[in-house]
UniProtKB/TrEMBL annotation:
It comes from Angustibacter aerolatus. Catalyzes the conversion of dihydroorotate to orotate with quinone as electron acceptor. Its main location: membrane. It is an enzyme of class 1 (oxidoreductase). PROSITE patterns: DHODEHASE_1. Pathway: Pyrimidine metabolism; UMP biosynthesis via de novo pathway; orotate from (S)-dihydroorotate (quinone route): step 1/1. Residues 50-179 form the Dihydroorotate dehydrogenase catalytic domain. Belongs to the dihydroorotate dehydrogenase family. Type 2 subfamily. This is Dihydroorotate dehydrogenase (quinone). PANTHER family: DIHYDROOROTATE DEHYDROGENASE (QUINONE), MITOCHONDRIAL, DIHYDROOROTATE DEHYDROGENASE (QUINONE), MITOCHONDRIAL-RELATED. The lineage of its organism: Bacteria, Bacillati, Actinomycetota, Actinomycetes, Kineosporiales.
Amino acid sequence: MARPELYRDVARPLLFRLDAERAHRLTLGGLAAASAVVRPARRRPLPGLRVMGIGFPSRVGLAAGLDKDGVALRAWPLLGLGFVEVGTVTAVPQPGNPRPRVFRMPDGGALVNRMGFNNHGAQALAARLDRLTARGPLPVPLGISLGKSKVTPVDDAVDDYLFSFRLLQRHADYVAVNVTRRTRRGCARCRTPVLCAG
C-alpha cells in the first residue's frame, strides 16, 4: 500500500472517529515516538535563504500552535520542515479555552483551532528542551512563541513575557512575542508601544 493510500484509507478514517483534539494529541504522541528512534542529519541552509542571520534549510516550517509544548520536536524536520516554532507558551501553565475548541470542517478541508494558550508553561518547555538538546541540537532553526499568562494583569505583562524569555532564550534561534489576543479584555493595551517596549 502506497503512503498516501495508507493515510487516506487507514490513518485518516481512524483519526476521524475521534474527537479532533484527541486525534491531535495522539498524532503528536505518535510522531514523538516515531522520531525518537531516528536521528536526522543537520540540514544545510538553502543558498541565500537567511533571515536576520538565521539560515533556513526550507522555506516551509511549522507555525506556533500545532506543537505548543514541543512534544514532537524531532519529528518535524524528518517531515521536511525547515524550521519549527513551538508555543505559544506562557509563564504560568494554563488550560486554554473550554472544550470543545477544535472543530473539523471536512467539506473545506479545514480545521478551526480555538484552543487558546493551553500549555504546560515555560518551565516545562525549558526542561523538555534541555533534555532534547542533551541528545544534540535540532537540525533546523527553533522559534519560540511567547504569550501573556491569563492570570497576569496587563500592567505586569512585560515581566510575564520576560520570565518566559529568560528561561527559554538559550534554546531559541528566534523568539516571537504573541500580543495579538483580541478576545481578552485589556489585551489591546498589550499592543501599545509603551508596554511592548518595556
